[in-house]
Specification:
Elements (H helix, E strand, L loop, with lengths): L2 H15 L6 H17 L4 H15 L2 H4 L4 H16 L10 H8 L9 E6 L6 H14 L5 E5 L7 H12 L2 E2 L8 H15 L3 E5 L8 H14 L3 E7 L4 H13 L4 E5 L8 H10 L3 E5 L7 E3 L2 H8 L5 H11 L2 H12 L5 H13 L3 H5 L9 H7 L4 H11 L3 H5 L6 H11 L3 H23 L2 H12 L12 H8 L26 H6 L2 E2 L2 E2 L1
Parallel strand pairs: 1-4, 1-5, 2-3, 2-4, 5-6, 6-7
Antiparallel strand pairs: 7-8, 9-10
Helix pairs in contact: 1-2, 1-5, 2-3, 3-5, 5-13, 7-8, 9-10, 11-12, 14-24, 16-19, 19-21, 21-22
Length: 519
């Protein structure tokens, strides 16, 4: 969603970083370009004015202009103002418990906790209700009841029932002819009797805001007194989303916002404007059609993505949530022993698929914005993994464990079995062979110790530190500092020098390059 804005801001800051010193006029010129970039991204004009004013006040200070790395200091200031505009606290250490608390207020002494879902028709309320139910069930271990109050849209209640079946979340039984307020009261009563922790109430939408819609939602709100009233809105509608949020907040009183279709080509202005205009936080982001494609909104991480600094903490969280630890450890042991067959390759493919689409994962890596053209040219296709999985599944168990058995006749049978040609089978086998050879080299280097020692040499150390997989531990290890990704020490922003897309100088020298250019 923020790709275009990220590229524009990246080019502005690149110019600043090339200069050894900055004058007030340099900062003014950069801020003019930042202003244009934000307006083009569809950020509301009052928000842009406040943002530029806040950055200027901090950036024109003597400590920035006289700084050893003034360009990096400006990036740090822009990052901090972005975090504040999005409702976060710059420089605050990651706290898992606090992060969960700021997402949804579901800890109540008297369950069930009612969550009211509101918004216009077509914004994705029903699907988002199912996603939140699944998230609370799997991550928070809560018993959730879904209830549809939409008695107007054909099959709306049936749609939520089907989503409940798909996610394994209970849904309220449908009673024909019952009206929204009565359904809401019945849902809360059922929630109390059934021992549920949370009741999610999916209200009806309209094509546009009208008094009838507002009156009905207000009646439901007064009947159940929700702990959360979440406005679900489509990120693709731009500034209309900001107007919508303001209207619902003034007439109903919302506690948070859920943005859907964030994985589309929206310009991102709505996300940047909503918090500033309404004073209500964006709590969740719908990242795709899959029922687990729902992310928590963290201001520092989003700011990092916008400025090309990546979002390593979210990437680690995604890995921790989707990758089976026992299976990963078993595979790691096999790899270190120099053993890697097609069964292992299949397991790897499935683990990666669980984490989502490849472009989405790459988007969390620091500096990836610089490589957007190369990524687009590479035509990364997530279907490739599905085709590779189909090829391996067309093999016998013996063939997967002993790939050397696969000769011409077997290749033809495998190709026919998965509906592809022999060339595709050959390509997969070659990829596997290359990976297997790499594993054997690692074994010759001394397994894990040898590999870590070799990497450590690149960074001018005797050995690489053990990298934690827990987000909190990772954040502590990374510390914090100016010019870098939120949580990275000085000189490592975007993996080096505070420059999105940069690499540590020691690594560049080890690769035979200096400053990104060939010697």
């Amino acid at each position: 969603m923020f790709d275009a804005l990220s590229q524009r801001l990246g080019s502005v800051f690149d110019k600043l970083k090339r200069r050894g010193s900055l004058s007030a006029s340099d900062v003014d010129e950069a801020m003019r370009e930042v202003r244009i970039a934000l307006l083009e991204a569809d950020v509301a004009l009052p928000v842009v004015k406040d943002f530029i004013k806040a950055v200027k006040e901090r950036a024109v200070g003597a400590e920035v202009i006289k700084s050893v790395t003034p360009g990096q200091m400006v990036v740090k200031i822009v990052h901090d103002v972005l975090v504040e505009m999005l409702g976060g606290e710059p420089g605050k250490d990651y706290d898992e418990a606090a992060a969960r608390e700021t997402l949804l207020n579901i800890d109540s002494t008297v369950p069930p906790v009612p969550i009211l879902m509101v918004g216009l028709q077509g914004s994705g309320k029903t699907t988002t209700s199912g996603k939140i139910g699944l998230r609370l069930k799997t991550r928070e271990k809560k018993r959730v009841l879904l209830a549809s109050l939409d008695v107007y849209r054909p099959a709306a209640q049936k749609q939520l029932a089907i989503l409940g079946e798909q996610t394994g979340v209970d849904t309220l039984s449908i009673v024909e002819g019952q009206m929204p307020v009565a359904i809401a009261k019945r849902a809360m009563e059922e929630g109390r009797k059934g021992g549920y922790d949370v009741v999610i109430l999916d209200t009806a939408g309209r094509l546009h805001i009208d008094q009838e819609l507002m009156d009905e939602v207000a009646q439901v709100r007064d009947a159940v007194k929700p702990a959360e009233t979440l406005l679900v809105t489509d990120a693709m509608i731009g500034q209309d989303a900001v107007i919508l949020a303001r209207e619902f907040n003034e007439k109903i009183g919302i506690t948070g916002i859920v943005l859907t279709r964030v994985d589309g080509d929206a310009r991102g202005g709505a996300a940047l404007s909503m918090r500033a205009v309404t004073g209500k936080p964006i709590k969740l982001l719908g990242m795709g059609e899959k029922l687990d494609a729902l992310e928590g909104f963290h201001a520092d991480r989003i700011a990092g993505r916008i400025l090309g600094m990546g979002d390593v903490v979210s990437l680690v969280e995604k890995a921790a949530a989707n990758i089976d630890q026992a299976e990963a450890e078993q595979m790691a042991a096999k790899m270190m022993a120099g053993s890697f067959d097609l069964e292992d390759m299949l397991s790897q493919l499935r683990q990666i698929k669980k984490m989502g689409d490849i472009k989405g994962l790459l988007g969390m890596m620091p500096g990836i914005g610089k490589m957007k053209k190369q990524l687009d040219a590479a035509n990364i296709d997530d279907k490739v993994m599905a085709r590779q999985e189909a090829i391996i599944l067309s093999m016998t168990l013996q063939e997967r464990r002993r790939p050397e058995l696969i000769k011409a006749s077997r290749k033809r049978r495998i190709a026919a079995g998965c509906g592809m040609d022999v060339a595709s089978v050959n390509k997969l086998l070659k990829q596997h062979q290359q990976m297997a050879e790499m594993m054997k080299k690692m074994k010759k280097m001394g397994g894990k110790k040898g590999m870590m020692g070799a990497l450590g040499g690149l960074f001018g150390a005797n050995k690489m530190p053990d990298m934690p997989t827990d987000p909190e531990e990772l954040k502590k290890l990374m510390g914090g500092g100016p010019g870098g990704m939120p949580g990275l020490p000085p000189g490592m922003g975007g993996l080096g020098g505070g420059t999105p897309g940069g690499l540590p100088p020691d690594l560049l020298r080890a690769m035979g390059r200096k400053g990104g250019k060939k010697r």
